[in-house]
Design goal:
The complex is a heterodimer. Chain A is an alpha+beta fold. Chain A has four domains: 201 residues, no CATH class; 154 residues, no CATH class; 209 residues, no CATH class; 150 residues, Barwin-like endoglucanases, CATH 2.40.40. In chain A, 53% of the residues lie in helices and 17% in strands. Chain A has 24 helices and 20 strands. In chain A, the strands form two sheets. In chain A, strands 1, 2, 3, 4, 5, 6, 7, 8, 9 and 10 form a ten-stranded mixed beta sheet that branches. In chain A, strand 12 and strand 13 form a beta hairpin. The radius of gyration of chain A is 34 Å and the shape is elongated. Chain B has seven helices and ten strands. In chain B, the strands form two sheets. In chain B, strands 6-7-8-3-9-10 form a six-stranded mixed beta sheet, with helices on both faces. By secondary structure, chain B is of the alpha/beta class. In chain B, strand 7, helix 6 and strand 8 form a beta-alpha-beta unit. In chain B, helix 3 packs across helix 4 and helix 5 packs parallel to helix 6. Chain B has one domain: Rossmann fold (3-Layer(aba) Sandwich). Chain B is 34% helix and 27% strand. Classes of the chains: A alpha+beta, B alpha/beta. The structure holds adenosine-5'-diphosphate (ADP) and magnesium ion. The site of magnesium ion has 2 residues of chain B, from helix 1.
Chain lengths: 767, 230
């Protein structure tokens, strides 16, 4: 082994705490960054890739058939910067019964000669394309499975001949719910014409809008009934992951910053405490470069181990988190996976970062003059802080205490480094406990503060369960009659057209006790009148509406204008909530699809579920578990990260203080030589560290609180109510502050006591 | 070896630290095979002089030539390479690397010149044996006595067969017995041809060297050759 290797290895072996801290910090930071990056990549890249592979439509424009002819539309093809497909005849059919996996409601059907073409090349997932009358191909939204066994299912729409499913296709553009052969369309009485456009520039909303304007210029005004930008679909795709991103990004950044600062601190600590060692290496004939190499090699070993382990564990953990993050999202042909380059890039990037963090103190070590390093050692520069020292000495406090405070003045650089680590540690702990508290409060929403809740789903062909004998009203009566019931809330679900938007939306209609929903309102108020709805932030942003706006819902030829009266904490980007009275206007007689039963406090939910299921075979009954899967994940995630980041921060503080104190051993021995008792030596050390810890805590806690506020205010799909943002309590904050000081004192105590116990002779001997 | 070869040559070397003049124009020559003692009261500039010769620090004025090489013309890296090949240094407080066992401390110097770890260990063990501390080969410096530490330090200094051995108060931190042992060891080395420059404030130790350079206030005040050594 080379001389550099020998010297570096000896330091690594003898500085086990330091080495371990570096490895742990790097491992954890790499893990965090891998997860954060995997989510970022998964949130956009798979959509983009699948969309590009299909030559997806940047805009889908629907025209009123009465106002514009097919020939007029054909002339829009071939305009500069535009690729067009169509016109295709289109119609919105009404399907009165649930079919396949879909609920009853509107079905957008387009007549297309085949799945290919210059725009929106559909992927035929199973079966074949519709070529003959009576055949239909249905859009299959979920990626992965091949729904071969559903081929041949008939679909009966109001006023249309029965169509048989001959294939399933996927459109990343979401251009239709189903397709038939163009010849079939006449029998379906088309009302619209569809054009699919790709533009040369389409990365922003403005560019897409400009493209549409260019492509449709010269057509009769008012001919366009709806325009759909692919950016909407892309946002919906990323919406779920977006809710995690701000939090995961913060943890990722924190991990990065903590690791860089602590590694930098640990290495510069090693350099400073090794002043004399550097002098010796140089006297032996080590060049500056070799000294730098020794210090870099010293951290390379643990850093490499940390990077590798972090990347591997990140690669193992990230897919599970992605799976939960993307559950329930129409992923189409996009594949949600962690690309191999993510952990590789993170490991390499982290390694580079750590080496850079180490380079500064290592170069400083290399430049150090050998004569100075050997003779001067790490003595403070003469005269520095002399006046402050004199002033402190005059104060009516015990001399060891004032000496301890004086050390902060004579060595401001060292004190600042220690303070940075404490501030970072306490701020991180504050922020992560705050985020965890917010997420716990959010998760707690769903299962009503310890009151047992039972979910009841009505059997239907759609969920492959026996259909009930009882009517909607009779089921509700039964649920009230089973012992233990307190309130019953019924929910009906319909797909409804939203005027001006080609994609139908879902409406939840509630009957009975809606107090649980009322808790989720963050702005405005609950829907009370028949023409009122409430919805979540992602629906509002994706449809460009706000609380107070009016939207028009249409179902089966009935149009009802409704007002958005309130904003929910969070919900699907495609759904609004309404009262049962609205259902009576849009689709009277629609039965409930499920019920939520809250039991009287203390009632046995499992027993209730058994009795209800026994009384009516046509329902599925289940006692509700705590929280929902997604919030459980993120709470677990936040909690685990809090513990780990806290531990790393604590280790960093501990390590810094340990080094500082160890470095001063000789000085402490000298103080004993002039008559200081061991107890006084400990007091002195602990004083300087306590002062530093308290000062840093005062800075760190407000910083942590501010960071928490910044994050919870900017989580896209969840609008946290004030009660969930204000998670701070005085005792908790005090505990955090005390923890910061305590960790610092713990780090100082062991070496201080060791130094205090040494006899003066030993101290001088060891030098 | 020609005993006339000049190993060290100083010409009007001055060194100032701010207002302090540590060396006020020192000229001297050291020939191969000589044992030179530099003495004088504390603060007279002995260590500074040694640092100049070792290339650990640069003079404010004047030239330092060692083995025909003008140190002023060398870069920092050049100085390091020169040091490892031609010089061995011993300090008052040993300056061993606390993190390495005795044997590895010695072997490290060999590895620096490109020798393999194995070769270096063999030579290091040989040297430790010659200096009577082979048994402590696996001990860390903290577990060694002062005398043992200085022997290890001497072994390390001899590792690359230096043209010049520099020692700054090598006995200063030792009790009189260990100090005597180390001194005798250095003189034995000189008898077998090793050129030696020892800084000491102890006139009795100085008297055992072939030539004594006395310093006061950064200048050479007197040079003499003691009876016994001559
Ligand atoms: N790095 C330094 N910075 C400032 N002054 C120094 C430095 N090194 C030595 N001196 C001063 O130079 C003078 C000579 O010091 P030194 O050579 O160490 O003396 P000696 O070794 O003879 O005791 C002293 O006055 C000392 O204070
Ligand atoms: Mg000296």
């Amino acid at each position: 082994m080379s001389a550099v290797g020998t010297a570096a290895r000896s330091i690594v072996r003898r500085r086990k705490v330091q080495t371990f801290v570096i490895a742990l910090v790097v491992l954890f930071s790499t893990l965090t960054v891998v997860i954060a990056l995997a989510l970022l990549v998964a949130a956009s890249a798979p959509f983009d890739r699948a969309f590009a592979a299909q030559l997806g439509a940047h805009a889908i424009v629907t025209f009123d058939r009465a106002q514009v002819s097919g020939t007029q539309l054909e002339q829009t093809s071939g305009r500069p910067g535009t690729v067009a497909a169509g016109p295709f005849d289109a119609v919105v059919l009404e399907v009165p019964e649930d079919f396949l996996w879909r609920t009853a409601g509107p079905l957008v059907v387009v007549g297309r000669p085949g799945p290919g073409g210059p725009v929106d090349r559909l992927d035929l997932v199973s079966g074949r394309w519709a070529t003959a009358p009576g055949e239909i191909v249905v859009n299959y939204p979920a990626g992965g499975g091949r729904p071969a066994d559903l081929l041949g299912v008939p679909i009966t729409a109001t006023g249309a001949p029965t169509l048989t499913v001959v294939g399933f296709a996927t459109s990343m553009s979401g251009s239709a719910d189903a397709w038939v052969a163009p010849a079939q369309m006449a029998a379906l009485h088309p009302t619209a014409r569809q054009m699919l456009f790709r533009f040369s520039a389409a990365s922003t909303d403005a560019q897409v809008a400009a493209g549409v304007d260019r492509a449709t210029a010269g057509l009769p005004p008012g001919a366009i009934t709806a325009t759909q930008s692919y950016l909407t679909g892309k946002r919906a795709f990323a919406a779920m992951a977006d809710s995690y991103l701000p939090i995961i990004t913060v943890f990722g950044l924190l991990g990065l910053v903590v690791s860089v600062v602590i590694v930098g601190n640990v290495v510069s600590g090693a350099v400073v405490s090794g002043y004399r060692r550097i002098g010796v290496l140089k006297a032996l004939g080590f060049t500056s470069r070799q000294v730098i190499a020794v210090y870099l090699a010293m951290i390379a070993t643990p850093a490499l181990a940390g990077c590798l382990l972090g990347a591997v564990s990140g690669a193992l953990v990230a897919p599970a988190i992605l799976k939960i993050a993307f559950a329930g999202i129409h992923t189409g042909t996009a594949v949600i996976a962690v690309p191999a380059w993510v952990p590789v890039l993170c490991a390499l990037g982290m390694l580079v970062l750590v080496v850079l963090a180490a380079l500064v103190p290592a170069v400083r070590a290399g430049r150090l003059s050998a004569a100075r390093a050997i003779t001067a050692g790490s003595a403070p520069r003469a005269g520095r802080g002399l006046r402050a020292q004199r002033y402190l000495a005059g104060l009516p406090i015990p001399r060891p205490v004032s000496l301890g405070l004086g050390q902060l003045v004579t060595r401001p650089g060292r004190a600042a480094l220690t303070a940075v680590v404490i501030v970072l540690g306490v701020a991180t702990a504050t922020l992560s406990t705050g985020l965890t508290s917010t997420m716990v409060a959010f998760a707690g929403l769903d299962h009503g503060d310890g009151v047992p809740v039972v979910d009841v789903v009505v059997g239907s062909p759609g969920n492959q369960h026996a259909v009930p004998e009882r009517t909607d009203k009779q089921i509700e009566e039964l649920l009230y009659a089973v012992p233990g019931a307190d309130t019953v809330t019924a929910r009906a679900l319909r797909q409804v057209r939203l005027l001006g938007h080609p994609q139908p939306i879902y409406v939840n209609f509630y009957r009975g006790d809606t107090s649980a929903d009322a808790e989720q309102i963050v702005a405005g108020r609950m829907a009370a009148a028949p023409d009122e709805v409430v919805t979540g932030p992602s629906f509002l942003t994706q449809h460009g509406v706000a609380v107070g706006d009016r939207i028009i819902l249409e179902l089966g030829g009935r149009r009802v204008p409704v007002t958005i009266t309130g904003e929910l904490i969070g919900s699907s980007p495609e759904a609004v909530d309404a009262t049962w009275a609205l259902l009576d206007r849009l689709a009277p007689g629609t039965p409930a699809v499920d019920y939520t039963v809250t039991l009287t406090p203390g009632a046995d939910a499992a027993a209730y579920a058994r009795s209800a299921a026994a009384a009516e075979p046509g329902i599925m009954v289940a006692a509700r578990g705590p929280g929902n899967a997604a919030t459980t994940t993120i709470v677990t995630f936040a909690a685990v990260f809090t513990v780990l980041l806290g531990a790393v921060a604590a280790l960093g503080v501990f390590n810094t203080v340990l080094l500082t104190t160890r470095e001063r051993r000789r000085e402490l021995g000298m103080l004993k030589a002039i008559g200081m008792t061991p107890r006084q030596v400990v007091t002195l050390t602990v004083t300087s560290v306590t002062a530093l810890g308290a000062l840093s805590g005062l800075l760190a806690i407000p910083a942590g609180i501010a960071a928490h506020r910044l994050i919870v205010d900017h989580v896209g799909v969840v609008a946290f109510p004030e009660s969930m943002k204000a998670v701070w309590h005085a005792p908790q904050l005090a505990a955090l502050a005390v923890a910061g000081v305590l960790i610092a004192v713990l780090g100082a105590l062991a070496p201080a006591r060791a130094a205090a116990r040494l006899t003066v002779g030993e101290v001088l001997h060891t030098e | 070896m020609t005993s006339e070869e000049i190993v060290v040559s100083l010409d009007e070397v001055r060194k100032e630290f701010g207002d302090t003049t540590a060396l006020g124009g020192v000229s001297m020559r050291i020939r191969a095979g000589e044992a030179v003692a530099v003495t004088g009261p504390s603060g007279c500039g002995k260590s500074t002089l040694l640092n100049m010769i070792a290339g650990l620090d640069r003079p404010t004025a004047g030239t330092v030539t060692v083995r025909g090489e003008d140190l002023g013309r060398l870069t920092e890296t050049g100085l390091a390479l020169f040091r490892r090949r031609h010089l061995g240094m011993i300090f008052q407080f040993f300056n061993l690397l606390d993190d390495l066992p005795a044997l590895d401390n010695v072997a490290l110097a060999g590895q620096l010149t490109g020798a393999s770890a194995r070769q270096s260990r063999i030579r290091a063990l040989e040297l430790l044996g010659e200096l009577g501390v082979a048994a402590r080969r696996d001990s860390y410096p903290a577990a060694l006595s002062g005398g043992e530490r200085q022997r290890v330090a001497v072994a390390r200094a001899l590792m690359n067969r230096p043209a010049l051995l520099l020692a700054d108060e090598p006995t200063g931190a030792l009790d009189s017995r260990s100090g005597e042992d180390v001194m005798q060891m250095l003189l034995d080395l000189n008898h077998s041809g090793q050129t030696l420059l020892i800084v000491t404030h102890d006139p009795r130790l100085a008297a055992r060297c072939g030539r004594i350079v006395e310093m006061t206030d950064g200048r050479v005040s007197r040079e003499r050759t003691p009876e016994r050594a001559a």
